[in-house]
Design a protein that fits this description.
The protein has 117 residues and is mainly alpha-helical. The protein is built from six helices and two strands; from the N terminus they run H-H-H-E-H-H-E-H. It has a two-stranded parallel ribbon. It starts with 6 loop residues before the first helix and ends in a 9-residue tail after the last helix. InterPro entries: Ankyrin_rpt-contain_sf (IPR036770).
Length: 117
């Protein structure tokens, strides 16, 4: 039993577990039966801290993504602001992002703070 378990302990255990898996030749990019790779599952998990995504990338997890105005709008509506920043940093834009449209949606959704990153 782990005593005094906190978020930092959870993060450290996660990183150790990922390192152990990689050291035993586990491929972090293999998709599950539904076709989701670990990075995609982590991105979709609203409760997962963004640092966990960075750990997966540190140990070789990859994902291919492109972002567009519409995909960013979908992410704005999820209410996960750190995911938007992560996607902007790590994805390739397939088109010029329409910032005025993003702002309009954020105002409509009453989540303007999500665009201030």
């Amino acid at each position: 039993m782990i005593k005094n378990f906190d978020a930092s302990s959870e993060f450290e255990l996660f990183e150790q577990a990922v390192a152990l898996l990689v050291n035993h030749s586990v491929d972090l990019n293999v998709a599950d039966a539904q076709g989701y790779a670990p990075m995609e599952l982590a991105l979709r998990n609203k409760t997962m801290d963004i640092n966990f995504l960075n750990v997966l990338m540190k140990y070789g997890a990859t994902f291919t993504c492109t972002i567009s105005t519409e995909s960013l709008i979908r992410w704005i509506k999820t209410g996960i602001p750190d995911r938007i920043e992560f996607l902007l940093e790590h994805c390739i834009g397939e088109e010029k992002v329409d910032l005025s449209r993003l702002l309009e949606v954020a105002i409509e959704e009453k989540i303007i703070r999500l665009l201030i990153i």
